[in-house]
Design a protein that fits this description.
Helices cover about 40% and strands about 25% of the residues. It has about 90 residues and is of the alpha/beta class.
């Protein structure tokens, strides 16, 4: 059984943590791990959106939700739906 991982990041712009997440996802053994990424402030034009999609990693975001409490509730629902074994925040 693959270990289900959910990474939470603030955005996927040209920063260092985003690059490190991309490197981690690219090197990850997909026979052992099933990663997914949730993005708090998502912009389709962000640098690492395309790269992460090319790796086949599902991206989740909170379109149309502007309040922090509503996003937190949406994230909680996402965690309940995906049931990851590990939630790792990069923010």
């Amino acid at each position: 059984m693959k270990c289900r991982l959910l990474y939470l990041v603030g955005q996927l712009g040209p920063g260092g943590l985003e690059r490190q997440l991309c490197y981690l996802l690219a090197a990850m053994d997909r026979e052992r791990y099933r990663p997914e990424v949730a993005v708090w402030n998502f912009w389709e034009s962000d640098v690492y959106v395309r790269r992460i999609r090319e790796l086949g990693v599902p991206l989740h975001f909170f379109a149309g939700i502007s309040s922090r409490s509503a996003k937190l509730l949406a994230f909680r629902r996402l965690v309940a739906k995906l049931n990851p074994q590990i939630v790792h925040s990069y923010s």
